[in-house]
Amino acid sequence: MEQKKILISLVVPLIIAGSIGTWFCTRDTLSDPIRIASGSIGGEYYKFGDALEKKLRSRARRPVKNIETTGTMENLRLLKEGVVEVALLQSIIFPDLDNDDDDELNDISVIAPLYLEPVVILARKLSGIESVYDLENMRVCTGPEESGTKETSDNLLKFYGLSDKVTRVPEFFHDNSSHNDRNSCDVGIMVMGLRSPCYKEMGKTDVKALELPYARALAESKAFLAEFTLPEGVFARHPLPVLPHKNIQTVAYTALLAVRKDASSALVNEVLSTIYRTDLRIDFPDLLPLKEAREWSEIPLHLTAQEYYNPLRRMEVFATRMEAFAAVKELFFAFLAISYFFWLRFNELRKKEEIRQNDIMKEELDGFLQETIALDRKQMQSESLEELRSIIDQITEVKIKALEELTNEKLRSDQMFSIFLMQCHNLIFKIQNKMGLLR
C-alpha cells in the first residue's frame, strides 16, 4: 500500500507538470511585432496595409508594422522568408491549384479575399492611342519586376499578341518619383482597387481609359480572372475630366490576404476579426463583406480561416478534437492500466524472488547452525587447549561467513538468526570457561 501511495505521488505531479509544459510550449501566440507586407506608397495595397496596421494594433495591443514593398512578388518572397507575418497578394500568383510542385506557394495560405482589382489601361490623350492594339511600338509601363502588375502586364500583352511589339518600362505608371521613365511612358497597365489614391491623381491628368476587347475570353483564359465593368466617372468627375468617359469592359483579379501555413490560429483569428469586426469597411467600401468572403471558394483557405468563416465547421473540428482527446484519454488510461499491471507483475515476481532467496539463505543458516552443533560436540570430547583454541577460531569463522553471506534484512531479523548468533556466543563462552578449568 505504501509503495502504491509513493507511485501515485510521483506520477500525478509528473502528469500535471507535463500537461502544463505541453500547453505552454504549444499554445497559440501572436508574434511581436506583427509585420504586414503591403505595396508602394500611393497604392491601394499600402493604404489598406496602413489601415489594417492601425486597427490591428488597437485591437491586439501589439506592435504592428506596415512595410512598403514593390508589390505582390516581393510580398510573397518576404512572407516565405519569414520577414513578415501577413502579406497582400494578387490572385494572379495562384495559376494552378493542382500543381503541388509549385514551391513558391507550398508554404502559403490565403486567409481572406479582400476586394476586386480591375485591370486598367490608361493612355495619354495626346498619344493617339484609341485601343489596345494601338500599343504596338509604344512605351508601356508594366510595373516593377517584383510586382503583380508585371505578371498581369505580361499575360495581357501575350493575350493580345503584343509581347514583342512594345517597349516595356519596369515602373508603375502612377510613380510620382522623379524617374524619367514615368514621363516617357505612352501608356500604363495598372492593377489595383477602384478606391486607390493613384486613380484620383490620374484623374487630374491628360489620360483616358482603354477598353479591353474580348474581355470574356480573356477572363476565361486565366484562373481567378473575372469580367468587370469600370463605371463611368468612377475615378474622376466634374469639374475634372471624366475618367473613364464611359463604362469600360475589362477584367479583374481579387486582392488576397495571406499568411504562412504554419501561422498560429491566434494570428489568423485576430487579423480576420480586425477586418470583419471593426469599422475598416468604412474606409474600404469595396471590401468583400463577411457573407461573400464566406462563400468565396476560388482558393483553399487556411484551416483556421475556414473555421472562422464557417462556425459549423469549427464545431465539427471541435467535435473531432474532442473525439481525438477522448481517444488520447482512453489510450492514456490504457497505458496507466498496462503500466499498473506490469508493476503488479514485477512486484509479484520480485516478492517471489525475495522468498526464493530467503529460503536459500535459511538453508544456508541451517547449515551454519549444524556446523556450530558439530563444533559443540567436538569441544565436548576435547581436553586439549590447542584444539579448543582452534574450535573457537572455527566458530568465529562460521559466524563471520554467516554475516557476510546472509545479507537479507528479513532473515537477520528472524528469530533463527538470533538463535544462531546467541549459540555462537554461548559456545565460545563455554569453551573459554573450559579452557580456564584445564589450566
Automatic annotation (TrEMBL):
Residues spanning the membrane: 324-343
Protein keywords: Membrane, Receptor, Transmembrane, Transmembrane helix
Domain of life: Bacteria
Keyword Transmembrane helix applies: yes
Entries under PANTHER family matching the protein: SLL1037 PROTEIN
Name the UniProt record assigns to this protein: TRAP transporter solute receptor, TAXI family
